[in-house]
Amino acid sequence: MVLYLLFFIKDELQSQLLNEHVWSELKSSGIAKKPDEDSVSSQVTLQDRIEQVWNKLKMPEKLRLDMAIKYSLDGKNSLLEQAIGSWEAVTECICKREELILALEKFEHFASDPNRFFEKGSKRSSLTRLEESKTRDALHKRLSALDGSTKKAIRAVEKRFKDTVTYQGRPYLEKMSVDRIEMLYWLQEERRAALLDSPPTTEVKSKTCELPPIATINLL
Question: Average pLDDT, stretch 138-145?
């Protein structure tokens, strides 16, 4: 069955997610209909743009469908045309922030490991720690700057279009409030798991000197 309800969702995805009951209800309400030929070119453009947003935000299929149904209620797609720019802006902010989070995670993977100073050939000088501190401060400063612009973009979408902005299906404002702490926690758990999986160290038995027995002294 070919579904024309959502011009920006592929027919394969529609047939998987919409059952016959939902389809019949949407069709009877007048929502589901084939787009006219004059709007095909603009619809293809909107389709490409919204799919890029979905893919970059790694949006689950259910959320994609919910969003698609919401914006398909407007027959002329004027609401989607207004919203797509805001969604693209917030998506760009989130992608930049996630790249920086990944860079911070890679840095902390080494810099926050207390065992690094005990490795062969490692530099244990205070200068090394100072350089690490400067790098960490620079990353957090850039991240804090991105936090401000990202929150502003998210709240603009939520206020104007009543949408919840997510990343991998998780509300992004919620993620932003804890993801730095979560990152350090999981790095610590990863090190702990690696330590438990490592083979036990060989116990070295100390050699004791065998002394002759003490001679018995007869005091009588």
Answer: 94
What is the model's pLDDT at position 51? 95
Question: Which domains are seen in the chain, by residue range?
Answer: 1-76 (no CATH), 83-195 (1.20.58.1520)
Confidence of residue 3 (pLDDT cuts 50, 70, 90): very low
Average pLDDT over residues 106-126: 67
CA–CA separation, 160 and 217 (whole Å): 102
pTM equals 0.66
Other beta carbons within 10 angstroms of residue 8's beta carbon come to 22
What single string gives the DSSP state of each residue in the chain? Answer: ----S-TTS-HHHHHHH--HHHHHHHHHTT---PPPGGGHHHHHHHHHHHHHHHHHTT--HHHHHHHHHHHHTSTT-HHHHHHHHHHHHHHHHHHHHHHHHHHHHHHHHHHT-GGGGGSTT----HHHHHHHHHHHHHHHHHHHHHHHHHHHHHHHHHHHH-PPPEETTEEHHHHHHHHHHHHHHHHHHHHHHHHHHSPPPPPPPPPPP-PPPPPPP---
Give the CA radius of gyration of the chain.
30
